Amino acid sequence: VQLVESGGGLVQPGGSLRLSCAASGFTFSSVVMSWYRQAPGKEREWVGSISSTGRGTTSADSAVKGRFTISRDNAKMTVYLQMNSLKPEDTAVYYCRTMNYWGQGTQVTVSS
User: Fold this and answer.
1) pLDDT tens, residue by residue, 55-107
2) Please, what is the end-to-end C-alpha distance for the chain in angstroms?
3) Which helix (H) or strand (E) holds 73?
């Protein structure tokens, strides 16, 4: 199983980024995929999840709801995290996860 995140970087407050997580080594279309993040000095927290078909998503309350959207392309074995209206407090390493597997993370820094 391999999960490889990409798309992170430095963005100004109010900006957008789209993270990708490319998967391999398992039946991608059969599993729920999730995004987590870990800010400096804080515990890793759940951002949201998407069902195997992509028809259902759930997101963490308040902090990201309405700004972050999860989607997936089962043909490409990739899950995405579209992040809009980014805030400095969104600065973190973002990870994708499935079952008990994690990617290596991608750094997102929101700063002017």
Assistant:
1) 888 887 667 888 999 999 999 999 999 999 999 999 999 999 999 999 999 99
2) 37
3) strand 68-73
Contact 110, 13 (CB under 8 A): yes
Q: Burial of 112 by CB count in 10 Å (0-12 exposed, 13-18 middle, 19+ buried)? A: exposed
Tokens standing for 61?
């309350």
9-11 vs 2-6, strand pairing mode: unpaired
What whole-number distance in Å separates Cα of residue 33 and Cα of residue 101?
10
How many CA atoms lie less than 13 Å away from 42 in the CB half-sphere? 14
Question: Strand 106-110 to strand 9-11: parallel, antiparallel, or no bridges (unpaired)?
Answer: parallel
| Sequence-separated (6 or more) residues with CB below 8 Å from residue 32 | 49, 50, 51, 52, 98
The whole-angstrom separation of Cα 104 and Cα 112 is 26
Stretch (H or E) spanning 94: strand 92-98
